[in-house]
Hints:
Blueprint: H1 2-39, H2 47-68, E1 75-77, H3 87-94, E2 99-100, E3 116-118, H4 138-155, H5 163-169, H6 183-193, E4 223-226, H7 232-239, E5 244-248, E6 257-262, E7 271-272, E8 274-282, E9 289-293, E10 305-309, E11 325-328
Parallel strand pairs: 6-10
Antiparallel strand pairs: 1-6, 2-7, 3-8, 4-11, 5-8, 8-9, 9-10
Amino acid sequence: MKTIVLALSAIALTGLTLFALSKSSDSDMRKKFMDFKTQYNKSYGSKNELEYRFSVFQSNMDLISTSNADNSKRYSLAMNQFTDMTFDEFKNQYLMEPKENEHHKTLSAGLTASGNVDWRTVTGAVGAVKNQGQCGSCWAFSTVASLETSYFLKNNSFVSFSEQELVDCATSYGNHGCNGGLMPFAYEYIIDNQITTEDAYPYRGTEGSCQAASKRPRYSLDSFAQINPINVNGLMAALDQTVVSVAIEVQNDFMFYNGGVYHNSYGCGSQLNHGVAAVGYNTESADPYFIVRNSWGPSWGLGGYVRMAVSSGSGTCGIANATDTYPIFE
């Protein structure tokens, strides 16, 4: 009888210990959540919303922790300004409608280029990382990033061009303002209509009526080109000339990228939903990567950048695809 009582006592103590650990873990997570709210100046309209956002935050922190514990992954994740958002919410606010990557399953070309290119090392060639805000205008930021570098390389003068003009004015070319667009369509608009500067037509992060007719100065573009061949080698060849507008498929862990070389851990690449700008590559690294500029502000990733594994064919998350284009100033 004494043995049974002791055993029951041990079970009870174990239960209390587990309960205490659970409470402690919940308390630690809530403290992290409150620190997160303060750091990113978050506020919620009701107690129910607060509790919902906490549950989303907790789920995302679990994803971050699980991913970082996986030794097969060559990149790390971390809490950032998006940690209280579900991926569906994130897609609706920051990404475009998916576009089929027709080349994802057919390309087989491997890595043949060697060396490294980083246009950020050329003084004045690459501007500061920008922030698209809660508007699916990534395509406009991708377009402008390549336009700015290409203009600099032609004229030895850096001009910050207007993403807002593209958001407001390029809809008749197949783009949809804050609901997505394609970089080739944006280049077609600029060729036909020219484009003004960021100072003349500042970014608002919402779609409005086109004001381009009254904005000066205006800058012309002669033409644009598609990467050739349409694979990672074609993208590297284009990067030898300038910054390139590229499309990728973003999945949920990409939201929290914090460092390392991001690779194709979820088989992404067939549904392109985000426009970014490739500013270089490094094949001399033990883990070759493209250097990619995002438009979610400098606090995301590596100062606003991500290193994406080169891989082969269409590359990591379809980065080498038929949408990849760059402007040409003759």
